[in-house]
UniProtKB/TrEMBL annotation:
This is F-box domain-containing protein. Residues 3-37 form a coiled coil. It comes from Mycena sanguinolenta. It comes from the Eukaryota. Keywords: Coiled coil.
Length: 418
């Protein structure tokens, strides 16, 4: 064959190869579509009514090892039918997890997530690792702009590599913040280096007209302005962690007329300040837990506070001295009108030189007098090194026979049942 004929032959073969490639590509696409149709036909989930298949997917949120974090997006990439089910189930998108550091692209993803949730209220969990510069304000600004959908907000702060006195700017340029559906706000720190502006926490609380619970654990606050008292009429539960790093000073600036549950380590609030807060709020407190180890309160201040809360049914005090406990028992025994509705009393005593302390016999018998005028359903006193007198044990065991839960001793040993 001549050179021209060979070139023409090669061109014809190339043309045929291109045709066959296009045919192969069409066949591969047809095969993929047929496989999807076969999978859909064989998939029991796809054949179920949407109400049932949606419920199955919702159950997968709780059982997946990664929790709700990745399940919805994973389901989008399996079968077309599963994609349709996931997108038609707004409840699957009710939990959003943001992990800082993250790229700016997440600011584009968040609105899509909120849109898929439809009219359902959202739970948002924000975790921050490392330096405060890892907080991405482009992403958080999107979250605050969609604050109208937030029902629960949790901030988990792992600041093990931060520098001392570093302050985290939560809100950036977003102000004011509107959180009309928010019911719970939780801020937890794994360590104790970072500070949070008190004014921004106030903005979150003040922008949530339906909030019922605020939890602050190992959070240090920076009073960045002259705070005025903030009234939060719906807040019923306020919990500060039981550690020296839980900054409870912000409580002094809150007025909480609906407060039912309060836990304060008494790190920075004095007894007189707590008394002022109790008087100012005049709340129907039912559950109160107080720390004692920092010496910010005197016994007479505690008794005056308790006298203002006749609605209290549960009282817990941790790290008190033996003297403070004895004085509490005396006040309860001598004044039946003090905590008349007390049903649950918990005392975590302060160890004496790393050993369990002892209560004197007088203190135990005073406790029995205090219990005799109240319907106590649960008593927990620990740690104590030695057993109470036999007559005291007999009284406690008699209460136990009526259904009351009695624990006196160490966490491992209960003298009442020993």
């Amino acid at each position: 064959m001549s050179v021209e004929e060979l070139r023409a032959r090669i061109a014809a073969i190339d043309h045929e190869i291109e045709l066959q490639k296009k045919l192969l590509e069409r066949l591969e696409q047809d095969r993929v579509r047929a496989l999807r149709q076969l999978n859909t036909a064989l998939d029991p989930v796809a054949r179920l009514p949407l109400e049932i298949s949606s419920e199955i997917f919702l159950q997968s949120l709780a059982t997946s090892p990664s929790g709700a974090r990745g399940v919805p997006t994973v389901l989008l990439g399996i079968f077309n039918a599963w994609t349709d089910i996931a997108l038609a189930t707004p409840a699957m998108w009710m939990a959003v997890h943001i992990h800082f550091p993250c790229g700016d692209h997440f600011a584009k993803i968040l609105p899509i997530w909120f849109q898929r949730a439809g009219n359902f209220p959202l739970s948002a969990s924000i975790s921050l690792c490392g330096h405060s510069t890892n907080w991405n304000h482009r992403v958080s600004d999107v979250l605050w702009r969609h604050g109208g959908q937030l029902k629960h907000l949790e901030i988990l702060d792992d600041d093990d590599i931060t520098t001392n006195n570093e302050t985290l700017d939560l809100l950036g340029a977003t102000a004011p913040v509107s959180l009309p559906l928010l019911e719970t706000l939780m801020i937890r720190c794994q360590h104790q280096q970072r500070k949070y502006p008190s004014s921004q926490i106030f903005q979150l609380l003040g922008g949530a007209p339906n909030i019922v619970e605020f939890i602050s654990d190992k959070v240090r606050t920076r009073n960045d302005l002259d705070l005025e008292c903030l009234t939060v009429p719906t807040l019923r539960r306020v919990i500060f962690g039981e550690t020296s790093s839980s900054d409870d000073e912000i409580f002094f600036y809150l007025v909480l007329p609906a407060l039912e549950t309060l836990s304060l380590p008494m790190c920075y609030i004095s007894g007189s300040e707590l008394l002022a807060c109790i008087k100012r709020s005049a709340a129907p407190l039912q559950d109160l837990a107080l720390g004692w180890k920092f010496g910010g309160m005197q016994s007479f201040q505690l008794h005056e506070c308790l006298g203002l809360i006749p609605t209290l049914t549960r009282f817990k005090i941790w790290q008190p001295s033996v003297e403070a406990v004895t004085e509490l028992f005396v006040a309860l025994a001598d004044s039946p009108s003090l905590l008349p509705n007390l049903h649950d009393l918990t005392v975590h005593l302060r160890p004496a030189d790393h050993d369990a302390p002892n209560l004197p016999e007088f203190s135990w018998r005073t406790l029995i007098r205090a219990l005799s005028t109240r319907r106590v359903e649960q008593l927990h006193i620990a740690p104590v090194a030695t057993s109470p007198p036999m007559d005291v044990l007999a009284s406690l065991r008699e209460l136990a026979t009526t259904g009351a839960k009695m624990h006196v001793g160490t966490e491992e040993l209960n003298f009442v049942v020993a």
